[in-house]
Design brief:
The complex is a heterotrimer of chains A (229), B (226) and C (232). Chain A has 229 residues and is mostly helical. Chain A is built from six helices and no strands. Chain A has one domain. In chain A, helix 1 runs antiparallel to helix 6, helix 2 crosses helix 5 and helix 4 packs antiparallel against helix 5. The relative contact order of chain A is 0.16. The chains are: A mainly alpha (229), B mainly alpha (226), C alpha/beta (232). Chains in contact: A-B, A-C, B-C.
Chain lengths: 229, 226, 232
């Protein structure tokens, strides 16, 4: 049953992605100020939204794990974090490419970029922590606590970086004052369709990753059993 | 009353062991000196610019050297399985944590106050002009580092690669507090008083302290009892 | 009311059940030898009874009360693999810390009293780091006993000890037995343990294999228990 649902989601996602790519690459024209590079935005924004949502979902399931102590929830939290982490990297890389072309620099200490970078650092700590703990129950307990600390921190980081950036000179080549919010509606809808597609893709990856996590736990249990014989 | 006594017992125990062995305080102090020296090679320490970097410089030193102290905090309980004996005794986990925070905070404060004069000499900065404000900022920000560092010292205490994991986890968590501390310290060292302009950062520090102290006290039992 | 009640306790490491439905009661004044092969789950069970680990299912009660309550923990003393005293502190300082954590009215007096009972009063100000192995172990025994626990949990108490420490520990355990204290100890030294024990609990790969009174048969032939109730 689970298998079939997964396949169904896969087909829908695939179709949606093809449709979105067609619209973004072939149907819609270049943007007036940004030329062809605006298209990267259609991947940048969805990756950012979905990864942030994913980190939040991971927080919720970490809390549920601590309350229920069922490793299923820990596997879900870990899978969501891992996939969101990959999407956060996509966000940063696409943002960076866009910045190189529009701002003329690969990196600007823009509040959103900086916050996302810190976010990435925090969750890379989470993923590393999971690697160094062999015992699944301890791993679930400690990484859940870290997830709670991490997400709380991101909220604080977000606010404080915003304050910090307003006190610092902005990027020299910024055209942000002109952009943002005044997008062509057709282009904006293309981006939102991609949020849906990437969201579904994430759900699929998380489900697959969760399965792996279950298998890994099973293997660990068998290994422990083998040691007692 | 029992709790107060327990917290004090733990804090005093840690301070006493530390003064006997001096392992963490010596290491962190000499490390702080090394970092202070190395940073002076990174740019011209006597230039006007140094003043604008002063806050950041100082807090980098404090954060790097302080982690050496925080690292030891729960690790020192491992030697003879002391942690088990403490957790089995009628000592709630949060009291153990708070006791350790207090001793760590005092050690970090001592380290930082010892660094200040050296910093003043190396970078020809007069740190005494707004000393009361500076003391407040250092106290609050040090509590922030302590709360995070001690919590993660507990979290990593039974892990292999403990020494590697701690800095990876701790520094990103400390960023908001360090950011606030850096802004305020730079202002104060440049002679600007605490005022409406930088009140935002002071509020951030207080908020950070309150939020993470509460979170750590609530979660430390989950971390220590498997 | 039982001194210690282990009520259908399960413990998992991931998906692997380390303890499966362990259920037994220990009456006041019993001395239980907790037996089982390496990795059977003895230490895991003792850690749960000591409150150092949470069971996944079931619970442990001491004198009918929840284990994590502070008043309950005041009744329990543990002596594990490590000596659980601080190397950089003196013998007296170590005992004062634990006396104070256990709420002694006068920690210094309690500490001194126990230094005398374990023959360490002459070196009370010496740092533990400088102690011989045997002295450290006697100090560890003093630390475990100093709050006069009604329930004593000992994990492999005789393995690492030297002769004098064993004598001290055996003397204290006998006194504790006479005073009606409850003792649970896990051990490999079958003979020593069985001599002291009134009851036996055998754990086979996380299962409760046997729970009952220690009989003359066991004393005559310590392997009898494993032959009849050990794992297949």
């Amino acid at each position: 049953m689970r298998e079939k649902i997964l396949y169904a989601i896969g087909i829908v996602t695939g179709a949606l992605l093809v449709r979105n790519l067609y619209v973004i690459l072939l149907q819609l024209p270049d943007e007036a100020k940004q030329d062809a590079i605006w298209r990267i935005f259609c991947f940048h924004l969805p990756a950012a939204i979905v990864s942030f949502t994913g980190f939040f979902v991971a927080l919720v399931f970490s809390l549920i794990y601590l309350a229920k102590r069922n490793l299923k929830w820990d596997a879900l939290a870990a899978s969501a974090t891992e996939v969101s982490f990959a999407l956060a990297i996509v966000t940063l890389v696409t943002g960076s490419i866009w910045a190189r072309i529009i701002w003329g620099v690969w990196w600007a200490w823009d509040p959103r970029l900086t916050s996302y970078f810190i976010c990435l650092l925090i969750y890379s700590g989470y993923l590393m922590l999971r690697r160094v703990i062999d015992e699944p129950t301890t791993r679930g307990r400690l990484s859940s606590v870290l997830s709670i600390f991490g997400f709380t921190n991101i909220v604080i980081v977000w606010k404080s970086i915003e304050w910090w950036a307003t006190l610092h000179p902005g990027p020299v080549l910024s055209i942000r004052s002109g952009g943002g919010g005044r997008m062509n509606p057709a282009m904006e809808s293309a981006a939102w369709w991609n949020v849906l597609a990437i969201g579904l893709l994430t759900v699929m990856f998380v489900a697959m990753r969760m399965r792996q996590e279950d298998t890994r736990r099973e293997l660990d249990a068998l290994r422990r059993l083998a040691h007692t014989i | 009353m029992h709790y107060l006594r327990a917290v004090a017992t733990i804090a005093l125990k840690d301070l006493r062991s530390e003064f006997r062995s001096k392992e963490a305080i010596n290491a962190s102090l000499s490390f702080a000196m090394v970092v202070l020296l190395l940073l002076s090679f990174a740019f011209d320490p006597s230039s006007e610019q140094a003043r604008e970097f002063s806050g950041g410089l100082l807090w980098l030193v404090f954060a790097f050297a302080g982690t050496l102290i925080l690292n030891r905090s729960f690790a020192r309980e491992l030697g003879n399985d002391c942690l088990d004996a403490l957790l089995a005794s009628p000592l709630p986990s949060w009291a153990l944590y708070v006791g350790k925070c207090i001793s760590n905070w005092l050690l970090l404060m001592a380290l930082e106050l010892a660094c200040l004069p050296v910093f003043g000499i190396f970078y020809s900065i007069d740190w005494t002009v707004r000393f009361d404000g500076l003391l407040l900022v250092i106290g609050l920000a040090t509590w922030a580092l302590t709360v995070i560092g001690t919590m993660f010292s507990a979290l990593t205490v039974n892990l292999r690669l403990r020494e590697l994991m701690l800095p990876i986890l701790v520094y990103p968590m400390m960023i908001p507090a360090l950011l606030g501390a850096i802004q305020l310290t730079t202002d104060l060292l440049a002679g600007r008083p605490l005022s409406a302009d930088n009140m935002l950062w002071l509020r951030l520090l207080v908020g950070f302290d309150v939020i993470y102290t509460a979170l750590a006290v609530a979660l430390v039992d989950t971390v220590l009892i498997g | 009311m039982s001194a210690v009640e282990v009520d259908r306790v399960w413990k998992y490491y991931g998906d692997y059940p380390a303890l499966k439905d362990i259920d037994f009661k220990v009456a006041d004044g019993d001395c239980v030898a907790l037996l089982g092969r390496n990795g059977a789950g003895k230490t895991t069970l003792l850690r749960i009874i000591a409150g150092l680990s949470r069971p996944a299912k079931g619970e442990v009660r001491i004198a009918g009360r929840d284990l994590r309550e502070l008043s309950t923990r005041r009744r329990v003393g543990i002596l594990g693999h490590g000596i659980a005293v601080y190397d950089e502190l003196s013998a007296l300082e170590n005992l004062k810390i634990f006396a104070s954590l256990y709420g002694a009215a006068d920690p210094s007096r309690t500490a001194m009293e126990w230094l005398e009972r374990t023959g360490l009063d002459r070196v009370k100000d010496g740092l533990v780091r400088e102690f011989s192995r045997g002295m450290r172990q006697r100090l560890a025994v003093a630390r475990a006993f100093l709050h006069d626990p009604t329930v004593l949990l000992l994990d492999e108490p005789f393995t690492a000890l030297d002769d004098r420490a064993i004598a001290v520990l055996q003397g204290l355990l006998k006194q504790a037995r006479q005073a009606g204290r409850t003792i649970i100890m896990s051990t490999h030294q079958l003979r020593e343990a069985l001599e002291l024990a009134s009851h036996v609990v055998l754990i086979n790969r996380g299962h409760l294999g046997f729970h009952g009174v220690r009989t003359q048969e066991m004393l005559d032939d310590p392997s009898w228990l494993y032959r009849n109730y050990g794992e297949a």
